[in-house]
Amino acid sequence: MMRVGLLVTCLVDMMRPRIGFAALKLLESTGCEVVVPQTQTCCGQPAFNSGDRAAARSLAVKLLGEFEACDYVVAPSGSCAGMVRGHYVELAGDDAALAQRMAALAAKTFELTDFLVNVAKLQQVPGEFQGSITYHDSCAGLRELGIKQQPRQLLAQMPGVSLNEMPGAEECCGFGGTFSVKFGEIAAVIAAKKCDNIHSAKSDAVVGGDLGCLLNIEGKLRRMGDKTTRVLHIAEVLAGKS
Question: What's the mean pLDDT when you consider all of the chain?
Answer without folding.
Answer: 96
